[in-house]
Write a structure and sequence with these properties.
180 residues, mainly alpha, 4 helices, elongated, transmembrane helix, signal, transmembrane
Length: 180
C-alpha cells in the first residue's frame, strides 16, 4: 500500500515541472496570396453549387411528396378493402345470428309441441283409466267380492249345480260348459 502511494507521488512530482515549463508553440505557415478575382470566382462557384444543391433537394422533396401521395392512395384503397371485408363479416355475423335464433325458436317450438302433445295424448288415457276404475268399483259392488259368504258368481254357480241335481237339462248345459 505504501509502495503504491510512493509511486503516485513520484509520478506526480515528475509531471509537475513539465507542466510549468511547457510553452505554447506557434506554427505559422504563409499562404499564397489569393486575388480578389479568384475569391469572386470561387464565391460564384459556391453559389452555383448551392443553387444546384437546393434544386436537387427540391426535386427530392417533390419526388417524395409524389411517393407519399401514391402511398396515401394505396392506403385509401386498402382502407376501402378493409371496409368491404368488415361489411362482409358483419353480414355473415348477422346471418349466423339469425340462423342461430331461428334454430333456437324451432327448438323451443318443438319442446312446446312435445309438452302439448304429451298432455293431449294422456288426456284420453286418463279418462279411460277413470272409467275403468269406476267400472271396477261398480263390478266390485255388483259382484260383492268383499262379501264373506262369497262372490255372486260363485253363489250363482252353486245354485245352478244344486238345480242340476234335479233337472237334467240344466245338468247337460253345465256339462257342455265344463261347470259341472
Amino acid at each position: 500500500m505504501f509502495e503504491l502511494i510512493k509511486y503516485k507521488v513520484i509520478i506526480a512530482l515528475g509531471l509537475l515541472p513539465g507542466l510549468f515549463f511547457c510553452s505554447a508553440v506557434h506554427a505559422v505557415e504563409t499562404a499564397p496570396r489569393i486575388s480578389d478575382r479568384e475569391i469572386v470566382e470561387s464565391l460564384t462557384e459556391l453559389k452555383q453549387g448551392q443553387k444546384n444543391l437546393n434544386q436537387r433537394i427540391d426535386d427530392l422533396i417533390y419526388n417524395m411528396d409524389k411517393r407519399f401521395e401514391a402511398m396515401d392512395k394505396r392506403f385509401d384503397s386498402i382502407d376501402k378493402r378493409f371496409e368491404t371485408v368488415d361489411k362482409r363479416f358483419e353480414a355473415m355475423h348477422n346471418m349466423i345470428l339469425t340462423l342461430f335464433c331461428s334454430v333456437m325458436a324451432l327448438v323451443i317450438a318443438l319442446m312446446g309441441y312435445m309438452v302439448w302433445d304429451r298432455k293431449t295424448a294422456q288426456q284420453p288415457l286418463r279418462s279411460k283409466m277413470l272409467k275403468l276404475e269406476e267400472n271396477y268399483h261398480e263390478v266390485n259392488t255388483l259382484l260383492e267380492i268383499q262379501n264373506p259368504s262369497g262372490p255372486v258368481v260363485a253363489r250363482i254357480l252353486a245354485s245352478f249345480r244344486k238345480l242340476a241335481e234335479t233337472d237334467e237339462k240344466v245338468a247337460a248345459i253345465l256339462k257342455t260348459y265344463s261347470l259341472l
